[in-house]
Design a protein that fits this description.
Blueprint lengths: L1 E5 L4 H12 L3 E5 L8 E3 L6 H11 L2 E6 L18 H22 L3 E12 L1 H4 L5 H20 L4 E7 L5 H4 L3 H10 L8 H12 L10 E4 L6
Parallel strand pairs: 1-2, 1-4, 2-3, 4-5, 5-6, 6-7
Helix pairs in contact: 1-8, 2-3, 3-5
Bound molecules: NADP nicotinamide-adenine-dinucleotide phosphate.
The site of NADP nicotinamide-adenine-dinucleotide phosphate has 27 residues, from helix 1, helix 3, strand 5 and helix 6.
């Protein structure tokens, strides 16, 4: 396959880049920092011109793995009283508008039968009092995936609803709280970026050729 991966410099995106390359795929990476992709474009997902430039070079692709995510922990653990408009607009801009920008920029590159995968999160399904703007943005991403699946008939569009995966994200969480995260999963541990990447790869690949408009929950049973 020839695939585009956003968030390629990140924990889960990086794991997907390595997995796809190990299976002989050609990977086009996108993030502000560099990645291990075969070719990399240092684009901000809010910079449509940069994304369009990458798309002009990229040629036909079999899939887009849209895995970038707002990474500022300052929006976490805020009460309803403390949350403000900016907390929401920042996450929505990067996670939702940024994801749409990537789809729009690469629309002409998508081959018939190709696949788009978004990185959502279990709070989109069950809510979360610690990261309300994040949960709301990931919920919007699920709705966007379903809407695009209907709009782009023939191009499959799905999402992964990830539980706690050990990346930079979980390094911000206090030890004691991390133990609680682990206990909430049925596997008794955090997921590995490589485990998330395997699920994303399945949705990207023809192995999931009749699956579209779905959210695949990859959370070690946390949300049950
Ligand atoms: N880890 C978890 O527990 C978990 C759970 C549920 C869902 N998720 C989701 O999974 C995805 C990947 O998470 P991760 O854990 O791998 O996080 P990560 O290591 O922090 O990676 C985030 C990626 O997003 C990119 N990014 C952020 N803002 C960007 C922007 N404005 N323009 C371009 N790229 C941008 C970063 O690249 P640059 O900084 O180089 O631009 C980085 O590659 C995210 O969507 C996250 O919400 C993660």
């Amino acid at each position: 396959m020839r695939v585009v991966v956003t968030g390629a410099s990140g924990g889960i995106g990086g794991a997907l880049v390595r997995l796809a390359k190990s299976r002989g795929d050609f990977v086009i990476g996108i993030s502000r920092r560099r990645s291990e992709a075969d070719v990399h474009y240092q684009c901000d997902v809010l910079d449509l011109k940069c994304l369009e430039g990458a798309a002009r070079d990229a040629g036909p692709v079999d899939g887009l793995a849209i895995l970038h995510g707002h990474g500022d922990p300052s929006i976490w653990n805020k009460s309803v009283e403390d949350l403000n408009e900016r907390d929401f607009t920042e996450v929505f801009r990067i996670d939702v508008v940024g994801a749409f920008n990537v789809v729009k920029a690469f629309l002409g590159n998508l081959k018939p039968g190709s696949s788009i995968v978004f990185a959502a999160s279990t709070p989109a399904l069950v809510g979360d009092i610690y990261g309300m703007p994040y949960a709301a943005a990931k919920g919007a991403l699920l709705a966007l995936a379903k809407s695009l699946a209907k709009a782009l008939r023939g191009v499959r569009v799905n999402a992964v609803a990830l539980g706690p995966i050990a990346t930079r994200w979980t390094s911000w969480i206090a030890e004691e709280e991390l133990r609680r995260f682990e206990e909430r999963t049925l596997m008794g541990r955090l997921g590995l970026p490589e485990e998330a990447a395997e699920a994303i790869y399945w949705l990207l690949s023809p192995a999931s050729s009749y699956v579209t408009g779905q959210a695949l929950i990859v959370d070690g049973g946390e949300s049950l």
